[in-house]
């Protein structure tokens, strides 16, 4: 079998095609086409050799350093991106036809903190001169620049296609998804951080719900129920027209590229066991987002100090108490005043004699006043408000029920706690609903439930 070995083959009428390096001999052929290999054979480069002029193979070289912050991509490279801590913006280079870039979700967190892909200058992504969004957990995509009309197009996607024209990208709280909308739920203080805005200004409006902590329940023969935390929410028309309560008002908040501090009020403490001195409970803590604060619910009345037999005012007012000396009145809600009103008044106590008539009034709720007490029956807590900003219709900000020396304590809904029957404490308000604490009978009152802040916006 014959064998030909050369170091370089040169086409006489064209350019040089280097097959191997070295300073030995050069072979020159008179041909317009040079064919390497044969049918079924493999042409391989020797160890340490490189190729040029053949173009890319349709794949990328993966960068092994994991990306966790914003960066500028390079054509021909693939990147593993970890968005566990924050969203990442990837700026694409000025593109030429055939450029290729790949991106993969390293930690499975794109749905919580998305990848924003931003084209250079007048370049486009999917035909749009604006950023795109990768927001599916586990997503990995490959972009190739097709032409000036469509720009960067996805030719391979392990999940689903990129959404053209990124909307809001933000962090903070517990993030869930409802269709094209994201919901951030804050059950404690935090920060709503906006990292990306939509190219369409109206889509930068976010809907919101702000609920304060419920007031603590009162203590005596019939302690007053704690008032619900103040309840405020936007109309909901900006983000999918979900169901809202009758209290929806004001307007959506148009966000900017900044951090918005979030305050979430704690539930108020219930009054301790009566025994002389000032033994009232406390109001719930205030909550706030942007320019919309909600006031904590008022505490329920107690017996020890005459002036404290009345409930205390707040987002919703606390109910009055009943004891051996006199009865107290329910306190005003919507304090300080907002429009629409953030809450209602508490109910009045009933009876001083005989002892089994002594009953406390119910704490005010978001949409209904706390009920006045009756003979042997504690007043029911006022009704809360129902909305589905997080995708599930939920009633929140219900008032606490009044305690009783008789047979029937006041009931509660919307996260409020029921009153206690002699000799027992009431039920605590449910955390993250702003429910008022139940009033006690001959025991300490119950705590109110903590508040919550929920923010909703369009992300794709």
Give a topology summary.
Elements: E1 8-11, E2 16-17, E3 26-29, E4 61-67, E5 71-72, E6 77-81, E7 88-91, E8 100-105, E9 115-118, E10 132-134, E11 140-147, E12 151-157, E13 163-164, E14 169-171, E15 174-178, E16 181-186, E17 190-196, E18 205-211, E19 231-233, E20 253-254, E21 259-263, E22 287-289, E23 292-294, E24 385-387, E25 394-396, E26 452-458
Describe this structure as you would to a colleague.
- Helix content is 0%, strand content 25%.
- The chain is mainly beta.
- The protein folds into 3 domains: 1-35, no CATH class; 61-166, Sandwich (Jelly Rolls); 188-460, no CATH class.
- The strands form 6 sheets. Strands 15, 16, 18, 19, 20 and 26 form a 6-stranded antiparallel beta sheet that branches. The chain has a 5-stranded mixed beta sheet with strand order 4-6-8-11-12, with no helix packed on it. The chain has a 5-stranded mixed beta sheet with strand order 5-7-9-10-13, with no helix packed on it.
- The protein is elongated, with a radius of gyration of 34 Å.
- The relative contact order is 0.13.
- Residues 13-31 have low confidence and may be disordered.
């Amino acid at each position: 079998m014959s064998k030909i070995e050369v170091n370089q083959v040169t086409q006489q009428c064209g350019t040089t095609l280097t097959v191997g390096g070295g300073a030995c001999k050069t072979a020159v052929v008179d041909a317009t086409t040079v064919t390497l290999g044969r049918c079924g054979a493999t042409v391989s480069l020797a160890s340490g050799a490189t190729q040029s002029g053949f173009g890319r193979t349709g794949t990328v070289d993966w960068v092994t350093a994991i990306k966790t912050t914003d960066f500028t991509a390079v054509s021909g490279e693939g990147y593993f991106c970890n968005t566990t801590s924050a969203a990442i913006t990837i700026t694409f280079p000025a593109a030429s036809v055939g450029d290729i870039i790949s991106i993969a979700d390293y930690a499975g967190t794109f749905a919580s903190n998305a990848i924003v892909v931003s084209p250079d200058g007048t370049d486009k992504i999917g035909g749009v001169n604006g950023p795109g969004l990768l927001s599916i957990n586990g997503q990995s995509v490959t972009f190739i620049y097709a032409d000036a009309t469509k720009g960067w197009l996805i030719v391979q996607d392990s999940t689903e296609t990129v959404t053209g024209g990124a909307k809001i990208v933000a962090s903070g709280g517990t993030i869930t998804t409802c269709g094209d909308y994201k919901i951030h739920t804050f059950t404690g203080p935090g920060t709503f951080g906006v990292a990306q805005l939509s190219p369409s200004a109206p889509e930068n409006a976010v809907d919101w719900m702000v609920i304060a902590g419920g007031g603590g329940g009162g203590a005596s023969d019939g302690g007053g129920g704690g008032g619900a935390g103040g309840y405020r929410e936007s109309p909901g028309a900006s983000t999918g027209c979900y169901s809202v309560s009758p209290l929806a008002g004001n307007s959506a908040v148009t966000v900017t590229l900044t951090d918005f501090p979030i305050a979430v009020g704690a539930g108020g403490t219930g009054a301790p066991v009566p025994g002389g001195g000032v033994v009232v409970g406390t109001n719930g803590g205030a909550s706030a987002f942007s320019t919309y604060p909600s006031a904590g619910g008022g505490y329920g009345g107690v017996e020890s100090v005459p002036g404290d037999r009345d409930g205390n005012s707040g987002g919703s007012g606390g109910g009055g108490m009943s004891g051996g000396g006199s009865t107290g009145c329910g306190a005003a809600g919507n304090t300080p005043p907002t429009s629409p009103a953030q809450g209602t008044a508490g109910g009045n106590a009933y009876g001083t004699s005989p002892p089994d008539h002594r009953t406390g009034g119910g704490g005010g709720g978001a949409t209904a006043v706390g009920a006045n007490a009756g003979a042997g029956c504690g007043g029911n807590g006022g009704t809360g408000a129902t909305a589905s900003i997080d995708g599930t219709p939920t009633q929140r900000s219900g008032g606490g029920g009044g305690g009783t020396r008789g047979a029937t304590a006041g009931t509660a809904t919307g996260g409020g706690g029921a009153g206690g029957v002699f000799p027992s404490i009431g039920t605590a308000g449910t955390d993250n609903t702003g429910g008022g604490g139940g009033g006690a009978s001959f025991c300490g009152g119950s705590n109110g439930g903590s508040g919550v802040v929920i923010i909703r916006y369009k992300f794709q």
